[in-house]
Amino acid sequence: MFFRHPDKKLSDYTGKELALFVLDIAAAGTCIVGIAVAPGLGVVFKTLGTLKRTERNRLVRKVRLMEQNGYLQRTNGKYAPTKKGKRKISEAEVWKILPEIPKRWDGRWHFVLFDIPAKKSQYRKLLRDRLKELGYVHYQDSVYVHKYDMHKLVGMFADFYMIRKYLRFVEVSKLEMERDIEKHFSPQKQNRH
User: Fold this and answer.
1) Which residues of the chain are in CATH 1.10.10 domains?
2) CATH architecture of 10-95
3) Is the whole model's pTM more than 0.90, yes or no?
4) What digits encode the pLDDT tens for the residues 111-133?
């Protein structure tokens, strides 16, 4: 499963997208091969075919940086993701999972409540970002609501970051000021989630 965007040039990748692409190719096996084309490190991406010089140089810099930061290791001229690199791939996969929206609403509101300690504040921000990305509506501090049940998906996300014990899931059939919340789930907005 390559993190390559089929309609996007390599030169248009963000640094994070390029890093995930490099890790994914390295995890696939023998696709990244180190060769001596210049002092230091050069790479050939067999899956990419011919690359422009600027793209090749950018890839070389990214591979070097990822090796220095402990995401890749070079053995016998080949690169493989380290434990840290494999975790980064897994993290990207957790973020890529999309919800399956049922055709009909079950009439229940699905809440996620959380109380994540200050020492784990970076995970609190990640959770908020993921909830918003999934279409949850901010109801109160540390309380988000959705029209559809996504507890399993949110639970997988929380398990990955080891914050599940700080979350609670609640379902309710009647909600005060329901219409204010319901307008966030209009048919036009549902198509985005």
Assistant:
1) 10-95
2) Orthogonal Bundle (1.10)
3) no
4) 999 999 999 999 999 999 999 99
